[in-house]
Every structure is written in structure tokens, then in C-alpha cells.
């Protein structure tokens, strides 16, 4: 099933949900072989003993991270919590490996802003400028040649893909954008916290981080990047919510039309913007997306509508937070970096029902 | 447990979820005895055979609806789909019974507007003006003497209670209000529809009715009722979503401050507005509500905040759609109508976890 | 709502799920007032800040446990993990307080057996013999005068109530009993363990502890207690499973009839055995129990049947693990100990849907 | 992605969950192209409009079933409710198409027994003997040349694979077998029934059909087929339960050892029995299976243990009811019939988390 000249990949911090999702996708990728997976805490443990779904598909054992060994690989994925990748990065950047960081460490270009929101000193501020923000729908060309990819967050991916056509064309008031988003519990990672117990999350719904969530500056940076010059910079009100589901992000976006009497055909605008994107699906007019329609797939499905023909545009955008919101997008970046078919290993149908 | 002079109550259409919820609450109400429960489809069936939770608590049998019999009761609840109550109402209004209609039939004062959104001719338009909209936090005085109560819908209750302090005080732009709301599946009723199967709803999330939901005109009517005169009438963008939970509504409300430099203490404003309301709980600053904190209870819990100190106010409002959003509110109305303690039968602690 | 001469109650270890469930039940109990609730970890925290469902109902603050203070109360509940109650017990037994221990510390009379299964030295072995096993359906008389109650575990309650009529009457082979049971996730308590995350438990099902679960010796002790003398002692195969629900235990019990040709009317047998039990409901023949029919209630619902008229009897038994399986049963014990109506504070209807 | 000489496949009754699951698997199968999918009710509807997960992967439209057209295909799958396939079968058996029936119509060789349990006259009793029961782990050779495959039910697959090694070797009392099984809600199909609503199934658990489920005779037939001759025929007590999950079957099997003093190494027995089976995974001793470890995959995972070293053997067996329990097994049969790699199109990793 694998090609003749597969590249070698490593995963740093593979015990979390983005790690097992990378393994699920890479195990069947025709051009890649995962040869190293690291975890300080689980060194010596067989991957398949921790993730029984991988039995018979992955025969690796977790090992201690070793920069020399990682540096000989073609590509290294960081599936670590924020604050980890930046410590290994200076050494790893000296090696031949290309790096795809799924954490937040290199997403925000303004280091001071990063340090404020993440409440710590950045460990490799000099490398931030070298990182390419890995949203292919915006940065495909830069990704091709990147040494270091900062893979976007889950909420940022769903929100940016939903807003892009409106902002690129300056159709809405950029200072009153709203992203009302909801995420499945896997977004909080595989950590033993009371807040994420089934008994706490199940059969309930709540907002969290409404006063200020770390994805806010990342989203605003991304939205501002696509605005025409000379426009007031995007200001977003971002309220995330916790869904009693495992996978899925649903972003409900609101924006006010600058001129409600002179609005282009929004459906056509969105369809054209994403016509050549393999992983953005603009639904036919009248259909609304559901998170289950992308469960386990790398697709983002979007609907745009204008209720009551009033001044407020509503955009609905869904992704799987572990796939297009993390590991799938990382693989998409890898495909672009190494010249593979962009859909290689990602042409998966969502699991429905 | 019951008092000496209990009133007699009947329930029309008791097989649905609002019916069983009325029974759950009224069975333990100290001042009321349910003596009649009707269902054409289930006539002859024991209530406890349909709802095993009621075994040992309710010993009634479903019967065919009979206006003469209902008219001799003190209070009659309609727990029917829209379009049913209006047919029995002309006859029932001639009897001594006071009536609490949980359906949408008498909520909207503009009959033409009702007929447009509900897509049918109204069966008793002459009675619409006599109905009191049963939101105690706004209409308590009128409820006291009402013959016919139109009990508010679930989304309208959560949304109105969240917006009232802002609109009463004309603090926000009334023409750009947003209610991003999510409901548990019990809101769709106990009907055998594919869309509500566990295999369709579970482990997923979606918006629905985004182009126009029947609760929109009801909410806008309620919001306009509390605006000071001379103000542009409230215009709402309302996007409901379907949660994979049984009970609970979570409304995330957004409004733009008219003067971001001259904003009163919003926390204090909300606390004062609801200080004497037995079923509205304004959370301490910094706490956010969760639907499970009101599961099975008649409470509405609200938080208000202003993220990043910008111009957008966010209000979070949660209720149990079957309790404060339907049957609990109906009992609250009954308590007010008959001079009982407003909390009688409703002083229940939410089931958590 | 409270009576004139309420007793004073304390709860040791009130931060877990059995603690909040005790508060939910006792807050509305007419004869009891909770005046102390302890937690070393949360001392100083308002109970309602941890459990928002209790806002407006409970105005207590967690405090450090203090035996002197606890000893002045009428009743003290231990809602602690196993191993804690036994340390405070020697001192507390010297006070006037009567004690209801919801943990496993005093359930097993054979101290060596306890120490083997719980893998620790017992801290108060001399008190074990004084404890009364608090299953009212078996030990009501002894409970009346008990100083110390060992409240049964959740699986043991569901399993024993299901098997009792068969074993008391020596109708089945006692050496081949099977309890295939399933519990909601709240049974694992409110602890930050990865195994209990929504992302791990939800949308899945598994057995656990099949090789040997700590409730096995407790169940076998209880079953043997009700066997006629001279019979081979009960041997149980017990396989617990983890359900992706919050509350509820469902035990599916299997036993082989000793004489398949001479079997009494099992439905009548069960109905008679439990005719006077306020919290055991034998369903009509043909109905099967569901956990939701007891959610939040203290009821145990049971069905008995004999498929294909073969030699295997099947008994289905459901309870809410936090209510009849823990805190509700504790309150039932308290009611019996203090001569209250056995249903006081427990006459609650399950939350359905 | 498809091979050069793909076979052509049709699906009759493709609107249900087994239909969409067939499409998910066949869309990526390298040797097959689905060219026809029928549904009387949905004729003219695009498949992807009903199943948004298939957008971009399947471009078919539902059509009326047409035997002439179906007969020209290489393989026809029936994903219909029982009672449908038998009507089209006499005509279809005259064509060149080979047929894989996922329904119960041809599973039971004793037509009278089928008619009793399915409560209807069989429409093609003369064809029953020609059907091969499509459990590859038992009937691989016969499947190779079969014209008509009767694909096993979901409970029967999980139960038979769990019991086979014990029965083939006559290690347990065949007259006291127990299968305590639980299924996700998708097993009930995509039908608008109240019993399967999220509000009815979620956050609850119950047994159903305990007095007699249609899969009982199918399982007993399968178990008896593998018993050595001269042994008392297998008698099973089968109690199915409904899980609040979408996909997954978990069977907990109990059997009594004939000679508890002379038991082979059960772990080794199971590992050897299934050593060459691509879709049966015997877990290492000490590990227990979970349904999520096979979600979306065709794998059956099994554990065998003997608690307390007593006479009762416990076997735990999990499958995805829609994959190995239905559509995946159908594809596995097809692979065998047409000489493809048995894993073609089925080498999928379960979606975890």
C-alpha cells in the first residue's frame, strides 16, 4: 500500500488525541512511514496497548525524545501541549527535518501578544518569524517551501474559513464580528481533569472562556491578514462552548453588511472562493452543516445565509477538531510541503451514522 | 402532603414531554390535584404504563377530551401541539375553568403574523386579545387575573430574560440583536421522526431553522414590549441549534452598546432587575451558567459580560426547556393566578450530576 | 418546610457525587438540617460555588473535619473514599452521633477478606462487628437501633434485591449465579482520571474488573446471609460494565432453576416479597425496567422472567447508583434509625425524559 | 484508486444505515464500483443530499428497483428490512448477479422456524437451502462459490465468534449458554420510531426482547453447526440491551466448564483458533475489549477469562454492528466470493477517540 520512496516521519508527544489521530491518518498514508513516536511519560509502552484501535496497524513503542534521531527524519510533527515545541525547536531547526507544530507555540507573530495570552516567556522567539501559518486555503504557496509550519488551532480554522470571503471582499463591518463556536470534548485533550469527565460534560452545555480565550488573538491575526489594506482591523467577539460530543467544531459566525442594499450573491461568492479547495465544501443553498458530516474527515463544510434579508450575515462552518482542526490539517500541510497529492491519506469518508 | 382545599386540574394532550413534566410537578404540588388527563390516541391507557417514572405517583388513565368535564375544573393546561388549543378554546372560555395554554396558539397578538409563521388559519382569532403572555418577570400583575394564559416558548423565555435589562434601559442597538441558542432534543417533542433519533442527533451538533424559526416573531414581540417608547423596534437574528442532550436551553446573546463609554455596571443592573424574581438567578461575576445546573428545575440562570471591554455585550442564559421553558413556567403561572406561593411545587433542586 | 424539631446532620467528604446527592436530598428533607459539611481540600469554599445546582438551596461552606464538632450532631454521613471513615470512626463512635458510612469500610464482616480485596490494613477492625449492613429490605429491624450503618454499594444493592426472593426460597443453584451489571460513569466518582473522560467513555461500552471487582465479596456475603441454612453458599460470577450515562445501574441476573418442573409463580413470588417495601417496585409481567425510570429517585424496579420456559431465570433490576445505590439509601437508613416516615425526603419522581 | 477491472455492484434499499455503511466502504474499495442504488421511497433523490458525509464521494441517485438492471451487475447487496429480499430473489437468482442479502430472509434453514419468529409466510422457501450463511470464520470455503449469501445478524456474529472455540472443542455445557449483549441504537435502523428518539434512549439503559428475540434461533443454529456430533444441542439464553451509543455491539458470554479440573489454556485456544482470521483479534490476556476500539472497522475483538478460577468462563466480544455486524461483513463476503484480498476496502482503523 505504501509507495516505493516513502518519507520517514516522527511524532513528538504522541499520547494525546492529536497524536493518535496523526497515527490513524499516517498509518494508511501511501507516502509516509512513521518510524518514531516519543513520550517521556510512556517511554517503553507499545502504542497499541494505549490505543487498542491501532492494534494490527501500528507496531511502534513510545521512546524518549531524541533530537539527533528526530533530525534524521524527513518530517517531525509536534503533538505536544503549548510550551514544549519551542524548547526543542532551536536544535531541531539545525537538522534536515522539516517540522509541523500542531501546538500554539509559533502561531502568533507578535511574541509579546503570545506571551500575554499564554502567560509565559517564549522559549524561541527568534524562530517565530520563520514559521509559516499552516492554513492552506490562505498560505499554500508559502507552505510549499516552509521549514517550520505552525498548524492553526481548531476554532481558528473553522472561524477563518467561514469569514474569509466576507473579509477579503470588505463586505462587512470588521469591527463587530462574532464567532459563537462549540467544540467537542476531545478539544480539551487527554488529560485527567474533573471538568472533562463524562459526568460533568454529558447531558449539559455551557460556554467557557467567554471573557477571553487564547484562540482570540490567533483568529484576529488571521482575519486581519486577509483584509484589504486601509480597512479598520478585524475585532472579534469569540465565545466558545463545550459540547457533549467527542469530535466536532461548529462555528456560527455573524457579521453586519456594510451596505445591505448592495450585496453580491453570497452563495456564489463562497462557492467561487473555495471552488479549488479540496477540503472546503460550500453546501448548496438551503442546506446547513452538521458536525457528524465531517467526523473523522478533513473536510470543512460551510453554509452562508442572510436571515429575513436583513443586514446580518450568518455563516455556519463545521470541522472535525482533531482532523481539519489539527492532525488532518497537519497531514495536508505535509502533503503540500513534500509535493504529494494534497488529498493523499486524507480522502476519508466521515463516519455517519 | 396535599393541602385541605386543593384545586382540581386537567391536562389536555398529556402524552408528550410537556405533559409528563406537568404530571411530575403537579403530583407533588401541595395545592393541586390532577383529576383529568386527555389523549385521543391513548384513551384507556394508564399514564404509568406509558411513563414508568410515574408508577406509584400518578394513578390516572388517559381519556378522550370532554369540554363539559374540563369546564368544571379549576384549571386546564393545554400540552398540545399548536393548532389544537384554539379549537377547544371558544367553548372552554365559556366555562369556569381558567386556562394555561403551553402551545403557541395565543402567544402572538398579531393574528396575521401568527398565520404567516404557522402557515394556517387561526381557529379563534377573537380570543387572542384576551390571552395574557405568561412571562411572570414581565406580566405578573396581568397574570393574576387572567382567564387565559399563553405560556411562552422555550427559546423566547431564555432569550427575553437575557435581553430584558438591556432593552428596558435602552443600552444597546435594538436593531442588531443576536440570539445564538441551542436546545436539547426534548424540545422537538415525543414524535417518531427520523431527525430526532439518537443515531441522528447524538455525537453531533447543527443549526436548524436558521433562515426563519417560528419563535422569532414571538421573541421580537416580547422584546419590543419592554423597550421604552420612541425607540427603533427590536430586530433579532435568531439561530437555534440542536444539542445532543435531552433537556436544556442555552442562549448566547449578543448586543452592541449604544455608548461604549457610558455603560452602567451591568452586573449590578442584572442583579437588581431580578432581585425579587424567585426563578431568575444572576450568577456572580465571573461564573458562567451550564444547562445541567437547571436540569429539572424552574430556574433561569444568567451571566452578563463584556469581553475585552469592547462594544459587544454577551449574555448567557440557561433554562430547562421542559420546566422554565414550558411546564414549570405553566405551574408558576398557575401559582400566581390562584394566589399560591409562587414557588409551590417548584422548589426543586436541579439533578446534578 | 422543615419540621419543628429537626435533627442536625453532618457530611464528611462532601465534594464527591454522593456528597452533592446527599445535599440534594437532605436540603428538602422535612426532618433534617445539614449544618456541617467537610472537605480538607476545599475548606473555605462555598458549596454552591462548586455545585451551581445548589445555589439558593444550600448556604454552607466546606470546613476541615472536626470530630468534636461532628460528635455533637445527631447523624454523620461519610461520603468519603474507602479507607477514610475507618480512621475517624474510633473517636466518633465515642460521641452521641449516629453514623452512616457510605463507603466500603464496614460492609464486609470478614476483616481479612476486606483487607485482601481493598489491599490495605483495616484501621478499625474492632468496630466492624458493630456495623449494621444498611439494606433495609433485609435488615430493617437492626437498622432501627444501629449506632453505625455500613451503607451497601451500588452493584450490591441492585444485585441483592434482584436475587433475594430466589435465594431465600432456595429455588436456584446457588453455585452458578451470574450478575451482568452496568453502571453510569458517576459510579467512578468525581476524580480527574483519564478513564472517565467524556472522550473515553462516551459512544462506547466495555466491561471492566471482570477478573475480580471489590463488590464481589460484599454481594456474596449478602446473598449467603439470606440463604436457608444447610445450602451450598452462593457463588457469583460478577461482570461490571461502564455505561456512557451519568446515573443508573442495570443488573441482568441469571440463575438456573433447581427443579424446572416445579417452579412457583415467580411474578407472584417477587410481588409478595416486596409488597410492603416502599422502594422496590416489581413491574407488571411483560414490562422491563429502564434506568431512566429511576433517575434521581430512590426506587429499585425489578422484572423477573423465564425465557422460552427453560431452566434459566432472568431478573432485571435497576437503580440510580447515586440514590438507592448510595445517598438515597443512606437517607432511607436515617429515616428508619430516627423513626421518620421511611419515605421522608425521598418521595421524588424520577426525571424522565 | 480503483483497479482496472472493477466489478459492478448494486444496493437494494440503500436509505438505511446498512446502506450508507455499504456506500462508505465500497466508495473506497479498489475493486468495486457501485452503479445502482435503489429506494422506492426516495427515487430521484441524490444520495449525497440524504447523507451529507458522502458529498464528493458518491454521485448516485436513488432509483426504483429493476430486476433486469440489477441482474446485469456482478453483485447485488440487499440492505432491506426482512421480508423484502425474498420477493425479488426468485427472479434475481435467474440472472448472472451474485447476491449478498444483509437481511434475515435466508439465514435460518428451517423455514417453519423462520416463519414462526418472523411471523409471516416466507416468500421464497425453495431458495433457503441454496443460501450460504456468510460467517467467513466458519464458512469461508462455501462462500467462495456461493450464488446467494445470507449475511449474519449483528448479535449472532458477536455471539458466535465468542463461543466458537468453546463449542467446537466441547469444553462447556451446551445447554446453559448465556449471551448478555448490548447494541448501539443504529441497530434498530433508520426509522421514525419514538422508542429510538434521543430523548428516549440517551442517558438510559434497558433490556428488550428478553422473552424472545429473533436473533435467538439464528444464533442457536450457528452454535449447533459447530458442535461435535453426538452432543446435546446448544441452548442459549439471550438478553439484548439497548445502549445509548450509535454504533457497537458488546456481547458478554457465560458458559459452564464441563470439567473445571481439566481445562486447556483458554487464551492459547482462542489465539490459535483465530490466528489466521484477518478480522478477529484475540486480545492479550488481561485486556478487555471496548466497542470504540472497533468503531467503523470490520474487526471483532475478543477476550476470554475465568474469574476466580471457578467453573464459569466469561468471553467478551465486540464488533461494530454496522460493519462486522452487517455491511463490512457483506464486503468481506464479496471479497471472498470474487477472489479479492479479503481485507480489500476493509483495512480501516477504528475512529478513536
Quickly list its features:
homotetramer, 353 residues, alpha/beta, Rossmann fold, Dihydrodipicolinate Reductase, domain 2, 2 domains, 11 helices, 19% strand, globular
> Can you tell me the CATH topology of the largest domain in chain A?
Dihydrodipicolinate Reductase, domain 2
Q: Would you count the extended β strands of chain A for me?
A: 13
Portion of residues in beta strands of chain A equals 15-25%
CATH class of the largest domain in chain A: Alpha Beta
The quaternary organization reads as homotetramer
- Percentage of residues in helical conformation of chain A: 25-40%
Which geometry of chain A do the CA atoms define? Answer: globular
Q: C-alpha Rg of chain A, in Å?
A: 20 Å
Poorly predicted residue ranges of chain A: none
The CATH architecture of the largest domain in chain A would be 2-Layer Sandwich
- Provide the residue-averaged pLDDT of chain A: 97
What's the end-to-end separation of chain A, in Å? 28 Å
CATH superfamily of the largest domain in chain A: Dihydrodipicolinate Reductase, domain 2
Taking strands numbered 1, 2, ... along the chain, how are they ordered across the largest sheet of chain A? Answer: 8-9-7-10-13-12-11
Q: DSSP helix count of chain A?
A: 11
* H-E order of chain A: EHEHHEHEHEHEHEHEHEEHEEEH
Amino acid at each position: 500500500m505504501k509507495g516505493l520512496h516513502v518519507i520517514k516521519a516522527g511524532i513528538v508527544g504522541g499520547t494525546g488525541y492529536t497524536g493518535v489521530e496523526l497515527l490513524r491518518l499516517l498509518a494508511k498514508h501511501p507516502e509516509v512511514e512513521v518510524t518514531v513516536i516519543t513520550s517521556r511519560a510512556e517511554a517503553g509502552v507499545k502504542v497499541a496497548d494505549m490505543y487498542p484501535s491501532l492494534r494490527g496497524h501500528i507496531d511502534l513503542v513510545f521512546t524518549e525524545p531524541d533530537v539527533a534521531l528526530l533530525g534524521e527524519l524527513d518530517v517531525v510533527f509536534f503533538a505536544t501541549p503549548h510550551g514544549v515545541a519551542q524548547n526543542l525547536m532551536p536544535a531541531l531547526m539545525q537538522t534536515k527535518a522539516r517540522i509541523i507544530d500542531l501546538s500554539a507555540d509559533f502561531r502568533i507573530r507578535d511574541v509579546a501578544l503570545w506571551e500575554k495570552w499564554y502567560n509565559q516567556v517564549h522559549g524561541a522567539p527568534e524562530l517565530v518569524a520563520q514559521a509559516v501559518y499552516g492554513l492552506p486555503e490562505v498560505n499554500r504557496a508559502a507552505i510549499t517551501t516552509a521549514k517550520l509550519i505552525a498548524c492553526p488551532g481548531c476554532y481558528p480554522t473553522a472561524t477563518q474559513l467561514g469569514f474569509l470571503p466576507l473579509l477579503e471582499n470588505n463586505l462587512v463591518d470588521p469591527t463587530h464580528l462574532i464567532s459563537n463556536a462549540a467544540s467537542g470534548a476531545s478539544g480539551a485533550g487527554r488529560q485527567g481533569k474533573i471538568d472533562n469527565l463524562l459526568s460533568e460534560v454529558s447531558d449539559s452545555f455551557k460556554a467557557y472562556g467567554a471573557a477571553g480565550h487564547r484562540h482570540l488573538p490567533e483568529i484576529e491575526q488571521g482575519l486581519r491578514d486577509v483584509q484589504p489594506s486601509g480597512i479598520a482591523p478585524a475585532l472579534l467577539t469569540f465565545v466558545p462552548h463545550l459540547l457533549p460530543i467527542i469530535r466536532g467544531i461548529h462555528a456560527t459566525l455573524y457579521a453586519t453588511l456594510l451596505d445591505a442594499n448592495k450585496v453580491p450573491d453570497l452563495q456564489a461568492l463562497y462557492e467561487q472562493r473555495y471552488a479549488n479547495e479540496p477540503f472546503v465544501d460550500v453546501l448548496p443553498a438551503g442546506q446547513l452543516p452538521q458536525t457528524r458530516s465531517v467526523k473523522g474527515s478533513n473536510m470543512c463544510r460551510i453554509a452562508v445565509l442572510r436571515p429575513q434579508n436583513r443586514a446580518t450575515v450568518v455563516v455556519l462552518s463545521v470541522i472535525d477538531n482533531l482532523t481539519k482542526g489539527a492532525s488532518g490539517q497537519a497531514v495536508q500541510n505535509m502533503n503540500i510541503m513534500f509535493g504529494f497529492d494534497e488529498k493523499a491519506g486524507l480522502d476519508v469518508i466521515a463516519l455517519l451514522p
